[in-house]
Design a protein that fits this description.
- The chain contains 11 helices and 4 strands.
- It is mainly alpha-helical.
- The strands form 2 sheets. Strands 1-2 form a two-stranded antiparallel ribbon. A two-stranded parallel ribbon has the order 3-4.
Length: 225
């Protein structure tokens, strides 16, 4: 795909990001009201805002529904299925991925995309990515879902099964995610985005699905550009 076509296709991608995010926010208004009322009833903040690093190293606040008591993040950024920090309703939100829905706000305002590398915290970047590789990780806008998060959709279960979750994340998961996101940026097309979006819906419905790299990057040269 030529440079001009690539830029044009990216403009289409980000245009549809905003359109779909707006539609998604309108559709999920009842969800926001219900979740907000439950969280307020439990005396928790509705939204959890966390500073993340995005496209080309620009910082932004990533929105999620609150799933843990205030101050929980100081005990580490890695979460597993046996993590005791999420409260009961928070565990439900995390298990169903409903806690990620508010990121549609980020997509609408352009700090995120529907599909792209997951936005990382400074602590994660400092611990797992050498400086020259940070820019490589963020060749595209960060996304609600993406190649890395799709492949590791069972990451919380995986980390719960190892004796040293932080070390495993640092030495195994993050380097592999970086490789996946680089492949995504290099092979990007609107068709690839659509495939990742469909696969994401499937793993939300069936978390036991095994998603391989071959499934994610099938026919990566296919392009709408």
């Amino acid at each position: 795909m030529g440079k001009n076509k690539s830029l044009f296709a990216l403009q289409i991608k980000y245009f549809f990001d905003k359109v779909l995010a707006l539609i998604g926010l309108i559709i999920t208004v009842p969800l926001f009201l219900i979740v907000g009322l439950i969280l307020k009833f439990q005396k928790e903040d509705v939204f959890y805002r966390q500073r993340r690093v995005g496209f080309r190293g620009n910082e932004f606040y990533c929105f999620k529904f609150t799933t843990m008591p205030k101050g929980s993040e100081k005990f580490g950024y890695i979460t597993t299925t046996n993590d005791s920090r999420p409260f009961r309703f928070g565990k439900f939100l995390r298990k169903t991925k409903l806690n990620e829905i508010p990121q549609l706000i980020n997509v609408l305002f352009g700090s995120m995309s529907l599909i792209g590398p997951r936005p990382l915290m400074h602590e994660q970047i400092a611990a797992t990515l050498p400086e020259p590789e940070i820019e490589q990780y963020y060749l595209m806008r960060p996304g609600i879902t993406g190649a890395g998060s799709l492949f590791y959709h069972h990451e919380d279960h995986l980390l719960a099964s190892v004796s040293e979750p932080f070390k495993y994340d640092h030495e195994v998961i993050m380097p592999h995610k970086q490789k996946l996101e680089k492949s995504y940026a290099e092979n990007w097309s609107l068709v690839l985005d659509l495939r990742i979006l469909i696969l994401t819906f499937l793993v939300v419905l069936r978390r036991d699905l095994d998603i391989s790299e071959d499934i994610i990057f099938k026919h990566p040269d296919t392009s709408l550009g």
